Amino acid sequence: MQHAVGSELPPPHGPGRTAWAGQAPEATGQVPLPPGGPVHAPGVPLAQGGVHHPAPPAPVPPDPRTATLAVLLIGPAGAGKTSVAKYWAGHRRVPTAHVSLDDVREWVRAGFADPQSGWNEQSETQYRLARRTCGFAARNFLANGISCVIDDAVFPDRPVVGLGGWKRHVGPGLLPVVLLPGLEVVLERNAQRSGNRRLTDEEVARIHGRMAGWYGSGLPIIDNSQLDVPATARLLDDVLARSMAAPPQW
């Protein structure tokens, strides 16, 4: 079943799912009374009229390790977004896809607009097309019960083409998380890169400075300066559990 871009995400699968129209009464907690009326537990006083109404059970908190999720991992170059996203997707208990914006952007071979050569209308167009393609892929995965994690360097000072764009492409259930290690760590990791993914130190510092605007935004931020990839992925699960219980306003 396909879902049009912009429509709501499909309901999560597994523990923590909510009741939807058309489900059996047992799925909604409205269990039919047994023949002969309600059963009265000894020692529990009856309500007025002789009918006892037990309190509804406490809701089970969703488990990010088994729920169907759409996650947007944000961070500067060298933050470890791609490595963490790939590891997290590969070690989940349920089917999960990793959608890399840079990989999709580099599908363009002839005519590739490398932003390191200078930002222009063509590089902006290719980034925009890559984001829309990633969003479409994410929605298809979700519609078929497969979680997805997307990594992108989204800037807080460009809300329309940043978070706002991803929300339009994927849906309102998208969970954004920011990876923001210290500048020294980012510079060291960037120095280990090669090809067009390695940036100048000046560019890395500029991007890192813009990413600092996420502090105070309400989005969860992980400083993974002293964490390896597996430890960061475990912390990501904890952060997602809190975001699922109380979604950030963005």
From TrEMBL:
It comes from the Bacteria. Residues 1-64 are annotated as: Disordered. Residues 38-53 have a biased composition (Low complexity). Transmembrane segments: none annotated. Gene3D superfamilies: P-loop containing nucleotide triphosphate hydrolases. Pfam families: AAA_33 (PF13671). InterPro entries: P-loop_NTPase. Residues 54-64 have a biased composition (Pro residues). This is AAA family ATPase. It comes from Streptomyces fragilis.
